[in-house]
Amino acid sequence: MPRAPFIVIEGLDRSGKTTQTSLLRSRLEQSGHHVALLKFPDRTTPIGTLIDSYLRSQSDLDDHAIHLLFSANRWELASRIESNLKSNTIVLCDRYAFSGIAFSAAKGPPPLGYEWCRAPDVGLPCPDVTLFLDITPEKARERGGYGEERYEKEEMQRRVREVFRRLGEETGGGGGSGGTTTRWEVIDAGRDQETVSMEIWRRVENLVANGLEEDVDRLWKDRS
């Protein structure tokens, strides 16, 4: 039996990730698919509550410590991801390891650099497709609620966008990022909600219809 696909939606803050993830989940379920929806950070776990307090600026943590907590939060759910995929349940994820790397690496120079930020996530289940919702920080600022959390500052978002661009170049298509084979799809999220939703569906329709024969891959597996 083919297994279900692992789909990740990434993007800058206020790019519409949560809305589009919800819309895609509804469409998948209406098409008869079983779907497990995950959102990182998962603020309901013991580690997630610490992250939530930090993101709301209610507590302060060393940059290295908070990055490792974000990664640990993903590892908490790694076995659940694989179990769902093997039981033919699509895993749909709002943010994943790529966000963890992008936001931490955008903070400043080494030792909290790109390679250091990537290391804790080596070996996590690899998405079959990553849909990156691209939007300029200026456009995101026009949307409601912008600036409510720690990282929602325009200069920070510009740096994050650059790291995402690097991740896309290194992981998209496989072969250039340590064997990672996720498909990396860039989608213009500055357009209206319905147009973005239709494009997302076009990018995943064949994948969800046919399933996959191969086992779940690992992120940056040759670096483990």
From TrEMBL:
Pathway: Pyrimidine metabolism; dTTP biosynthesis. One of its GO terms (cellular component) is nucleus. Residues 9-169 form the Thymidylate kinase-like domain. The keyword Transferase applies. GO terms for molecular function: ATP binding; dTMP kinase activity; nucleoside diphosphate kinase activity. One of its GO terms (biological process) is dTTP biosynthetic process. Its EC number is 2.7.4.9. Gene3D superfamilies: P-loop containing nucleotide triphosphate hydrolases. Pfam families: Thymidylate_kin. Keywords: ATP-binding, Kinase, Nucleotide biosynthesis, Nucleotide-binding, Transferase. The keyword Kinase applies. PANTHER family: THYMIDYLATE KINASE. Belongs to the thymidylate kinase family. NCBIfam families: DTMP_kinase. HAMAP family: Thymidylate_kinase. This is Thymidylate kinase.
